[in-house]
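Encode chain A's predicted structure.
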Amino acid sequence: MQFAVRVSAYQNNTMLNICDSKLLGKKLTQDKLSMHISESYYGEKLVEKEEAKLLLKNSSVINMVGKEIICLSTELGIASENGIKTISGIPFLIVFKT
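Encoded structure for chain A:
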């Protein structure tokens, strides 16, 4: 299983944009919501599950899209089911660690 990631610094924090790799390049639309899962935002490189775990654990701000990555972050105790939203059946979540 692979994930598309982009890591950047944001206000003295590590920001992680991560998605299921199969979603890269897709545009999701539902009612008035629209989300483009672009390579420029998510696609710096592809990583395997173990590297994704490390990135999730070590990032302060995480923007994630996709069933696989959200399931993984829930297993690690990073994500909460309560915060997950969906668009066109695809889950997305933003986590701010304090």
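The chain has one domain: 2-96.
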